[in-house]
Amino acid sequence: MQDSLAGELADMLDGEETAAESGQEQPKAYFANVWDFVYRWLRHMYKRRVSGNAARWSSTWFDCPEAVSRLTELWRVWEISRRDETTGMAVWWRDYCDPTMDRLMSETGPFADCEVNGRSTDPLPCALPPAGRFRDERTGEAYVIPADDGVI
């Protein structure tokens, strides 16, 4: 069954031009990378009481490969969803953000042994990553953490 679905998908995509091949300009990402997304937006929008009980979080989430993978894909879907003015963000919250964050922050998730505490009104803690850990995916250059901590 999977092989037939893969074949159908390949047939559907066969001959389609990508935006770059057709000369159309690619939409530019709002955030430079996943750390930029988490630090400047997600942690301020997704506030939870963080403790050793119900919700767990790590300020150094970028040291956990599972968290980096899940949050990177969450950010990429956010970049697409934000352009859909009808139901894009509602679907993003329901189908992507809530399940991803519930899994990451669960008692069996990758932060199960983390000891970070915070009130439900506080942004999720987010440490500065080591220099060179992330690149600006919009330009391909090294990502320089902005001097200001402005919230979007």
- Give the number of DSSP strands: 0
Low-confidence stretches: 4-13, 15-19
How far is it from the N-terminal to the C-terminal residue, by CA?
45 Å
What coarse outline follows from CA principal-axis ratios? globular
Could you say how many structural domains there are in total? 1
Order of helices and strands: HHHH
Biggest pleated sheet: none
**Gyration radius, in Å:** 18 Å
**Secondary-structure class:** mainly alpha
| Range of strand content | under 5%
What share of the residues lie within helices? 25-40%
Average pLDDT value?
80
InterPro entries: DUF4913 (IPR032584)
Organism: Bifidobacterium xylocopae
Protein name: DUF4913 domain-containing protein
Describe this structure in words.
The chain has 152 residues and is an all-alpha fold. The protein has one domain. The protein is built from four helices and no strands. α3 runs antiparallel to α4. The longest helix is centred in the middle third of the chain and has 18 residues, at 88-105. The relative contact order is 0.18. Pfam families: DUF4913. This is DUF4913 domain-containing protein.
